[in-house]
Write a structure and sequence with these properties.
Structural class: alpha/beta
CATH class of the largest domain: Alpha Beta
Radius of gyration: 24 Å
Order of helices and strands: HHHEEEEEHEHEEEEHEEEHEHEHEEH
CATH architecture of the largest domain: 3-Layer(aba) Sandwich
Number of strands: 17
Strand content: 15-25%
CATH superfamily of the largest domain: Zn peptidases
CATH topology of the largest domain: Aminopeptidase
Oligomer: single chain
Length: 445
């Protein structure tokens, strides 16, 4: 088998211990190594394609479903990554955040970096270790936790979200370390917990502990586009809400004795849908979906039989609101409509925030991190990048709220959370090159 050849199929199951995994060796790459730094980086990554792929598969084999979603959490994956990084000469910082809801009582966050000329400034690549559950197994063609390689893709839960970017940033860092290139500032990675739920045990804790500076360059590779053209610099505000209507449960043949919470809830949901989508109509062409969205989504089960009028009804909305609007104003309108319904139908209706994340200010497209990433994407991916906003939320929004400009980018087919989620190996290798090349293109170099 030739260096860099892609093997298809399922890799043999085996130990997850890092000493069983490939370590980047000396020299990196194959054949003649170019003297120019960017050329040395790309040659090194190309020469280690098979090793990067094999590591990716072994990491994905470790179930890291968020514990608030019924999974084991990030600990085993974090232990695996920490051991691998140490075995390959990186000094690892581990921040364990207490969480009584998981075995062991902590949620791990890992960091490592290589030094540069300006020791007070850092370029951070920030990926998350946790994943969402696999969903219905019947919709998967392969085992979601036994990665399968086919047609240049790795199929597994968490392959694209966010395994691809985690591995790409890790091997970019190892490439820079092994080549001993002169860097303008420190370059490092953070692998964080709890991104798929609310980041309460991940980035939010790290920000509280002041582990980042306003001068840092923050890249969050957790959204992107198939050709790698889209650099995300803005996100919408997020509001997940739960509405509970309490009526009176009775036999369905005696409706006058009861109060049908299901009917009231359905009418309320429809009026909220019409009101919110009708009132918050401003457009912003920066965003992939240029208007705010207010979508009724989850609905909880009420009664288990047809011939009972429900006494309780519960529905949810997912709201993605353009930054021009205040979430407080949106909530005020929702609560006003709830009060109207309570008075009209003599029901008790409760509004609850499931999650509320106001949008931070957009990252200027001429900021250091935006221009640096655009330069690397243009040179390595050979595409013309464009700056965009998205309706989804990443931890990039949390940095922007702290006044730290942040860019979000990766090359993905955008299949996260789907059955048969996959990552293209070509994207994994390309993004590794982009992350390693970026600091070499800095104006401070």
């Amino acid at each position: 088998m030739h260096e860099g050849e892609i093997r298809e199929g399922v890799l043999p199951a085996g130990s997850h211990h890092a000493h069983d995994i490939f370590r980047l060796g000396e020299p990196l790459g194959i054949g003649m190594v170019p003297e120019e730094p960017i050329g040395r980086v790309t040659a090194s990554v190309d020469g280690n394609t098979q090793a990067i792929q094999d590591f990716f598969v072994r990491m994905l084999r470790i179930n890291a479903v968020n514990p608030r979603m019924g999974g084991p959490g990030e600990k085993e994956r974090a232990d695996f990554l920490e051991s691998f990084m140490k075995n390959n000469g990186l000094q690892v910082t581990r921040v364990d955040v207490e969480d009584s809801g998981v075995p062991g009582g902590v949620r791990p966050n890992l960091s490592a970096k290589v030094g540069g000329k300006d020791e007070k400034r850092n370029l951070w690549y920030i990926s998350h270790m946790d994943t969402v559950p696999e969903g219905s197994r019947n919709l998967w063609k392969t085992d979601p936790f036994e990665p399968t390689i086919k047609d240049g893709k790795v199929f597994a839960r968490g392959a694209e979200d966010d395994g691809q970017s985690l591995v790409a940033s890790l091997f970019a860092l190892l490439t820079l370390k092994k080549l001993e290139l002169s860097l303008p500032y420190n370059v490092g990675v953070w692998f964080v917990a709890d991104e798929e739920f609310a980041s309460n045990y991940g980035i939010k804790q790290l920000l509280k502990r002041r582990l980042f500076k306003e001068s840092d360059l923050i890249v969050v590779p957790d959204a992107g586009s198939p050709r790698g053209t889209d650099i995300e610099i803005a996100e919408k505000s997020l509001l997940w809400m739960k509405v509970t209507t309490e009526g009176k449960q009775v036999h369905a043949s005696l409706p006058k004795k009861g109060l049908n919470a299901n009917r009231i809830g359905m009418r309320l949901a429809i009026e909220l849908d019409d009101m919110l989508n009708g009132k918050y109509r401003k457009r912003n062409k920066l965003f992939d979906y240029p208007v705010s969205s207010f979508e009724p989504t989850k609905k909880e089960s009420n009664v288990g039989n047809v011939n009972t009028i429900p006494g309780v009804d519960v529905f949810y909305f997912d709201c993605r609101v353009l930054p021009v609007y205040s979430l407080d104003d949106v909530e005020a309108d929702i609560k006003g409509k709830v009060r109207q319904f309570e008075k009209k139908y003599h029901a008790t209706i409760k509004f609850e925030e499931v999650q509320k994340e106001p949008a931070g200010p957009a990252t200027p497209d001429d900021s250091d991190v935006a221009t640096l990433l655009a330069s690397a994407v243009s040179k390595i991916s050979r595409v013309k990048p464009r700056f965009v906003g998205i309706g989804g939320q990443t931890v990039g929004n949390l940095f922007r709220r702290e006044g730290i400009p942040t860019a979000v980018w990766s090359t993905i087919d955008d299949v996260p959370h789907e059955p048969n989620e996959y990552s293209r190996i070509a994207n994994l290798i390309n993004d590794t090159k982009v992350f390693a090349a970026a600091p070499l293109l800095s104006s401070a170099s």
